[in-house]
Design brief:
The longest helix is centred in the middle third of the chain and has 71 residues. The chain has about 325 residues and is an alpha+beta fold. The chain has two domains: about 170 residues, no CATH class; about 110 residues, Heat Shock Protein 90. The chain is built from ten helices and five strands; from the N terminus they run H-H-H-H-H-H-H-H-H-E-H-E-E-E-E. Helix 10 links the parallel strand 1 and strand 2.
Amino acid sequence: MTPRIVAGLAFVSFATITGFVAIGSLPPDVALWPVIVTLVILFVGAAPVTFGRGDPLSPRSTAIACAALPLAVLTMLIAEPEIVESNRPPWLLSAVVISGIVLCLRGRIVFAWLSLMACYVLVIAWDAVFSGGLPDLLLLLFLPARLFIGTAFALVLRRSILAVEEFNRADADEAARAAAVRAAREERVSRLADLESMVRPMLIRIAEGQQLSAADMKACGLLEGQLRDQIQAAALANAAVAGNARAARRRGVDVVMIDDGGLIDTSPEVHRRVTQHVNEALHTSHGGRLRIRVLPPGRSSLISIYRSDEKSGTMRIDLDVHGDPASDLAS
């Protein structure tokens, strides 16, 4: 079961048991509505403690829970003083202690004790003013002893939970490092395979002392450019860009691509748009120079494309963080 389902079951159990005990212990000649109002206040305070997010519990949820407990006690004292004087309802203060224990489990131990003390101050002050006495000593000691036990249990349990979380975090970090090493190894093997398929035949011919023709020298230049792209522009190293760059160089375009890391944290959709513009620039260039630079992270633009030839002059296109043209400057 998920934590949300467990929390829901715990809340329903608390509400059901507390409601049955409260209504079942009500004397027959006493109105029901004060108990209902008190239960609603208790449940409103218990809900953020049970379902609230954060560890420790968020200040807002903590404030709601701590305010609800003394407010529930005060509501019962004002609405039904006869119950308090003759047969003090144990379910109310027991519910306060249970809520305090859950607060301790959620990392708000000090606030749990402050809330319980506020409830006891109200009970003692009410008895001193309206009854002329003090509550039983057993009542003053029994329920705080329960909260003390709950506090000790919460401290031990939270320490164990933190140790488990630290272990899981270390395990996740180790798995991430292993995955990164494995990915780097696979990438290295892939790059070596590509390098061997591209360069090995030409290197064998050179090692055998064969005479290289002008076409062979041009092929070497194309290989050199492709290898340089893979090293200097890793973010743009894919089959489509490599093919268009090779075709552009065959047409006499001086292509230089540089990657300064601006595409590392971009989404796949932005990366697709950038690649599309790069391929378009490579495909439409027929001479001169073409400079494509992935800008460093944190810039307002992701990539800058500069094209210069004798026929069309110079043109620069900047792509913004969404992969769309931010400027198209021609001179």
